[in-house]
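Sequence and structure are no longer studied apart. To make this concrete, we show below a single chain and its fold as C-alpha cells.
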Amino acid sequence: MIQVGNWQIDIVSGGRFMHDGGVLFGIVPKSIWQSVQPADSQNLVPLAMNCVLARNDSHCVLIDTGHGSKLSPLDRKSHGLLPGWPLLDELARLGITPQQVDHVVLSHLHWDHCGGATSRVNGSIQPTFPSAQYVINRQEWADATSGQFERSGGYVPADYLPLEEYGQLRLVDHLEEIVPGIQVLHTGGHTLGHQAILVESEGSGLIYLGDIGPTSHHIKNLWCTSYDLDLIRTREVKKQLFDFAAQKAYSVAWNHDIDIPLSRIAKHPKRDYLVEI
C-alpha cells in the first residue's frame, strides 16, 4: 500500500497466468530476455495481473479487473490459471465489497485486463460491480465492437457488452477526468484505444501503465510485446510516460510484473531509465 495525497493505493491481484515469452518481449532475442525472465520448457513465463484499488473519502476506484471467473476449464488450463477468483478475494481481504466500487477504469479490453468486469449470475452475464461506472476509451470500444477481425479479434464480447446493456458504460477521450484526482491518458500503441491512468494528489502521483509497460523489464525502449498494434506509438508514448514519471518522481504500476508491481523511475546517464524500488 502507498499513499498518493489523499488516495490510498493498494495493488490487488486479478490473477496469475503463463504466457509465451517470445510474445511478451517481441523482437528481443530469447538469449537476452531469458536472463531476466526465465521460461519453462514450453517457452512460457509467469505473469501477474496487477490491478489497482484507489480509495479516498469520496470514491473507491478499481483499475483493471484481471481474468475473472467466466473462462472455461480448458481455457483456464491453457493459460495456467490458479483456482478461484483472486480479485474478489483480495478486495474482501481489504474489506471492500463489489457494491462499494463506484468506478472501474479499464486500460483496454483484452481478457486479462477486463475479464473480471462481468460475471455469470444464474445463467446471465452481468457487471461484477453493480454500482460502478465502467470507464473505457472511445476508440477501444469502437474497435472491440466493430466486428472486424483485424480490430476486434483479440476481444471477448461477454467481457464488456453487458456494461452497455446495464447502463454502466462511460466512454472517454484523452485527458478526461474520471473523478477529481484521476484522469485517463489515451496512449494507443498496444491497442489503438489503449489508455494509461494517472492518479495525482497533493504533489504526488501514480501512473498505471497498462500494457505500454507490462513489466519492469520493459523499461528498455525496444522491449515491447508482439501484440502491440502500433509498435512505434508504443515506443514513443512509453518514453513520454517514463520521462514524466521520472521528472515528477511519481510511482508507476507494472501490471504484469510478479516481482515488482510498483516502482519509481529514474533517468540514467548512459541508459534511458532505471527502475527504483
User: Anything to note?
Assistant: The chain has one domain: 2-276. The two ends are 14 Å apart (CA to CA). The longest strand covers residues 7-20.
